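Fold this sequence, please.
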Amino acid sequence: MFEEIYSRAKEFKRKYPSTIAWRLKAHSKVIAEHMENGEEIKYVFAGQKNDSIFDIITTYVVVVTDRRIILGEKRLFFGYFLISITSDMFNDVTIKQGLLWGRCVMDSLRENVVISNLSKAAASEVEANITKHVIMAKEKMPSGINKKAAGENINISTNEE
């Protein structure tokens, strides 16, 4: 699993060299440790997890799977950070482009995750892949969960005599 994540992260970086991302191998290992059996990798990219173009030391590797979005960062000396956003917790994705780089904002029920310093050319590819795979994952969910999230599963009973 690690080799696939790492090779796809390197491929993304080669395709979009102006994206700022460091230590892809270490970050990929963190995500590989937390992948579940049978989980299929759909898309991998890397960028800085922050809202500032000047902060370039918080590289995260982002893996979109058939079940969730996983973000991982290996800290420099010890430990790591891992964020997992399941498809039922995911709301939407927003792309913002500046003069030099783009920014991807993933909105979940708990927080907004911002991946910045992406190549401007990469931003549209990132958005398209996240949207496509999250929609596919939501379609696989049991219909009761989708209806509940949409507010359609509310039963109101009245006692009429």
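The chain has one domain: 2-142. The chain is about 35% helix and 35% strand.
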